[in-house]
Specification:
Elements (H helix, E strand, L loop, with lengths): L7 H12 L4 H8 L3 H11 L4 H36 L3
Helix pairs in contact: 1-3
Protein name: Transposase
Keywords: Coiled coil
GO molecular function, one term: transposase activity
């Protein structure tokens, strides 16, 4: 996964500046990012507070961990079924 230069708190701060009335182009120039990045951030973090963003990140991490565990269990199950179905 690509590393970002900005933390979630910084992103929410930039979005708050925009909501306060700053222009998108000015913010992008000031912080050194593209307008596409700003639009992606607005879609992901628009209207969130810092605590909500931290909770979202924690839930995403937990979800990834659970998906990995499920995949490992399904792989083990498939291997066991294959072993049992072989003719002796």
């Amino acid at each position: 996964m690509k590393r970002t230069r900005f933390t979630d708190e910084q992103i929410i701060g930039i979005l708050a500046e925009h909501e306060a009335g700053a222009k998108c182009a000015d913010l992008c120039r000031k912080h050194g990012m593209s307008e596409g990045t700003f639009c992606n951030w607005k879609a992901k973090f628009g209207g969130m507070s810092v605590s909500e963003a931290k909770r979202l990140k924690a839930l995403e991490d937990e979800n990834a961990k659970l998906k990995k565990l499920l995949a490992e269990q399904m792989l083990d199950l498939a291997a066991m079924k294959e072993l049992v179905s072989k003719k002796w």
